[in-house]
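hey m, so remember when u said the tokens were messed up on ur end? i reran from scratch. heres the input so u can diff it against urs
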Amino acid sequence: MQALTAPAGGRERNAAVLPLPAFSDNYIWAIVQGDQAAVVDPGDAGPVLRFLEQQGLRLRAILLTHHHADHVGGVSELSRIADITVYGPAHERLPRCDVPLVEGDRVALPELDLDLTVLDVPGHTAGHIAYTGRAAGVEPVLFCGDTLFAGGCGRLFEGTPTQMHDSLEKFSVLPPDTQVFCAHEYTLANLRWALAVEPANRTLQQWYQRAQQLRAAGTPTLPSTIGQERATNPFLRTQQPEVARAAASWAGRGQNTPVEVFASLREWKNDFK
């Protein structure tokens, strides 16, 4: 599956997951099958409403990953559309949630050829969830909110390093061709930091060059893949000796476990300019 930007005119009828830019760097992901659509983390109703009208689509569902305003801010306005269902984490404060979800629950929408399984992924927030499986007839996919980014991960606003490390481990064991639909265009900044951690990582160097080209052309760098993140994202590489050595050097102390490596990497990224 390819993340395609729908054309300014005409109607996109192919099954696809489409990025709807919002704010300065958010992506609201639109899952489209025929004339049906669902959206993931609509922080702003405007881009969704314009897209639906432009493409002649019917919104069937909203999928939420966590409670932050830039992910749920458009829910109330979109809720005025008849016959939509809002799915979201059971343990987060949300403006609306018709179907509260916990790990192992499924979201099945046959009209969108969508069948997703829920993962509990605390760390960025206490009740954050992610969705993995099939969307618009293609699998595997991952909608991970603010837990995993291309080359990075979310800040720990409510969770602990152990929680976030364990959440990322759930992603790391997904099939390598899993397409990763992150919620923010943070890729270039993240990869600059990743290169400070692993300057000799040739795959990372090539990915940074490619990401620069994509952004220069005004094209999203997403989706990534789990395989690409395993090869280039320090937060998924805490057991690699070169990453552990870099984290220890930055922190000025030994790193005895992958969680300790992760915690030092997160502190490093927080301070990186």
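this time it looks ok to me. DSSP finds nine helices and 14 strands in the chain. if urs says something different then somethings off w ur setup not the seq
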